[in-house]
User: What shape does this take?
Amino acid sequence: MTVQLWTHCRIATLQAGHSAPYGLIENAALAVDSGQIVWVGPRSELPAELAACKTREHDAGGALITPGLIDCHTHLVYGGDRAQEFELRLQGTSYEDIARAGGGIASTVLATRAASEEELGAQSLKRLQALLSEGVTSLEIKSGYGLSLAHERKTLRVARSLAGNQPVEVCTTFLGAHALPPEFAGRQDAYVDEVLRMLPLLHAEGLVDAVDAFCERIAFSVAQTERVFQAAQALGLPVKLHAEQLSDSGGAELAARYGALSCDHLEWLSEQGAVAMAKAGSVAVLLPGAFYFLRETKLPPVAMLRSHQVAMAISTDCNPGSSPCTSLLLMLNMACTLFRLTPEEALAGVTRHAATALGFSDRGVIAAGKRADFVLWDVAHPAQLAYAFGANPRLKTVFKGEVV
Ligand code: NIG
Ligand code: FE
Assistant: This one.
């Protein structure tokens, strides 16, 4: 055993069922061996045999330690930007009108197709680095701006390679059913056929960890989404869904029937949908950046999600159209100010519950047996992470046991 010990800290473990808020331990110690947490607790209770195996002791200088942050819903790999669309929206055109007129996602599809793998990688790396600078250690990246086999492959390959030399783990999600590409105009079902052809090929190349769709009146119907889910299920891939963002389409109920890892957005979620999600154990991924940027007024039903004990995660939704955001810390603040989550719920939403939303049981909390992904912060209390917006109090990130 070669134990690295972290002392002189307080630790927000975020462990479920811990007696203190945030699972907070004062005067704490954390022992790490081979990239894994082997012990956490009050310094005074550190077992002597662990102290004896200590090869290095890190003085955390009184920092707060939390689990590494997890951004469980991003469209981080895309070409171009949509600043002009932002200007149009400021003049009064709605997001849906722009999409119907062939702008919106379709314009990002053109820019993404035009970009080489290298260009896409370089543009996306900057966004990834912004997230990492705030303590993100795992994130999800969706495809969905390529919308053809070659361009979806390119997007997913960039997503995979981004993790290559960065201290972060990336999960990839195939979102072929994000929008209708121009060459399929008026032929929605034919495009779903094409999505079903792409999925097994991309999966066979090891590029797909999960499958998502955009179930909405401007995107795909419940019946079309179900075809995508059936194909995912046949390959043993987990599903998730962009559901009830702009209207109640009943997507969450469908996703729950397929045991979805998560249903995301959910402003228009019905009680039936929440009940189905609770039964299936699907996480509600709330995206305050998109709500804010599209100036939505319909709030996600947070009280209802709480009453049905649906776990809530928070994410950036980093994408060029509805949330050009690379700050997960800002999302903590917005989840509290806009959606009225407590700071503790918000922090659990970017750690423990975000892990569940990605199907990870080995991270998201600080506990023995979990991965040693954690962050040291220059704050006295965990609520400060959600309270101060525009601040970045990160001191250090530890990824798989090693200081980044
Ligand atoms: O999560 N809702 C669909 N997809 C993205 C937005 C995509 C875009 O506008 O480029 C979202 O909000
Ligand atoms: Fe999204």
User: Anything to note?
Assistant: The mean pLDDT is 97. DSSP finds 16 helices and 15 strands in the chain. The longest helix spans residues 188-204. The radius of gyration is 21 Å.
